[in-house]
Input
Amino acid sequence: MSRNLIAILRGLTPPEAPSIAKALIDAGITRIEVPLNSPDPFSSIARIAAEFGEAALIGAGTVLNVQEVQEVAKSGGKLVVSPNCDPEVIAATKELGMQSFPGVLTPTECFAALKAGADGLKIFPSFLMGYEGLNAVRAVLPPGTRIYAVGGAGPENFADWRKAGADGFGIGTALYKPGLSVEEVADRAQRIVQAYDAAFG
Output
């Protein structure tokens, strides 16, 4: 799991979940989130985790409460990503042995998330913070804080985000949209991996 890329598969359905996940993993993307506002998301998570749980970090996005955290764990997920910073969600995630990446945008939210035990920070939507904003926030965060830019980060600007202090990215519609074939997702994944490798060496 060397690349800090999280595939955001919003709209994924359980029947296609294993084949889409395999295409991503084969391309080199080994962190996969199924947002909970997708159709039957826990079934998709369970199917992917059962088949690829050893090869990739599988979990859920748009996790908003403790009950959803518990359902992710029951489904075999090990990653919890949220659009917001909720200390209860973070604490429940860590109690169940999963990784927590809450959404943050301000310095106050960043430090609150870290204090609650977050494994890393999801800057969301990152286009609102921008490169200069991230550069300023990064300067005051504890060394080693993992930062993912989500919502405004893509292959065309990976290098700029890296210079600003981002460690990785969450990629949604540039990677997956409902209706895309497995081959189309695989092609997108390969191009995104190539851009990431070019930006991070």
User: Anything to note?
Assistant: The domain at 5-200 is CATH 3.20.20.70 (TIM Barrel). The chain has eight helices and nine strands. Residues 182-200 form the longest helix (19 residues). Helices lie at 17-27, 41-52, 66-74, 87-95, 107-116, 126-138, 158-164, 182-200.
